[in-house]
Amino acid sequence: MANKPNSQMAPEDRPEWIPVDWWREFEAASRRSLETRMRYGFVRTYKPILDDAPYRAFDTMEDYRRWCDENLPRWLGYARV
Amino acid sequence: MPAFDYRQAVEIRDALTRHQCRYLFIGKSGALLLGFPDTTQDADLFVEREPENGRRLVAALRELGFGLTESQAADIERGKDFVQLNNGPFDLDLVFAPDGIERFEDAWQRHIDVEGFPVCHIDDIIASKEAAKREKDRESLPRLRAFREYWLHQHRP
Questions:
Q1: A71: closest CA of chain B, how far (Å)
Q2: Where are the domains of chain A?
């Protein structure tokens, strides 16, 4: 399936639970080129510990999640809730 | 290291296509490709876990400039569940068994082509974030679910 839009919905017709400013942001993003969306979307900030090794591999996702829980600062957001 | 950019995404796409590697963009990087307006730091690839596909991926990564040792190449060929690469021209996470998605083939059947980039369907991206149960995903899921509604409306047949 291709990512080509077939139809638009006016913000006032959106599902009620979605804030109108979100809907407008989605519309604005859909008008940007993929290159522009990526320029706005990918940011680079240093993540302590996570960025400090050139390579890591985990046998299981559970191993990876546990390593994140035990080693990364809580504020990074990688801990499970 | 600067932020991941469009040119690097094209390099990944072209190298993996040349080597006939089966993969999908997943996570927030996949959502960005679909049009989700948000920010993320790295690109996440969901790679089919199959030995020949792993060898193709290793060849493509080396061509892109990732300095993989033989042991690291073996990890990737074997398809360890999660591999984090910070040893190349850009950072890349390889996920062979994302939470919340049973089989690569199922995700492949649902995938979306975004200008030649193979991307997981928004439902699979949401399912993997729901299953991961991380704090940062909990925060982004409401907006991602709202984007799903928008995206589905846009792509109604």
A1: 14
A2: 17-41
Backbone angles phi, psi at B112, to 5 degrees: -115, 135
CA dihedral A79, B112, B38, B156 (to 10 degrees): -120
Query: CB distance from B134 to chain A under 8 Å?
Result: yes
Complex confidence, ipTM: 0.94
What is the separation of C-alpha B145 from the centre of its chain, rounded to a whole number of angstroms? 19
Residues B46, B27: Cα–Cα separation, whole Å: 9
Helix intervals (H) in chain A? 20-30, 34-41, 61-71
Of B77, B127, B57, which Cα lies nearest the Cα of B98?
B127
Enumerate domains of chain B plus CATH numbers: 6-150 (3.30.460.40)
Q: Which residue has the tokens 């799903």?
A: B148
Residue-wise pLDDT for B52-83, tens only, equals 999 999 999 999 999 999 999 999 999 999 99
Q: Chunked in runs of 10, what are the mean pLDDT values of chain A (81 residues)?
A: 77 92 95 96 94 97 97 96 91
State the Cα–Cα distance between residues B103 and A15, nearest whole angstrom: 32
B52 at the A interface (CB within 8 A)?
A: no
Hey, are the CB atoms on B134 and A80 less than 8 Å from each other? yes
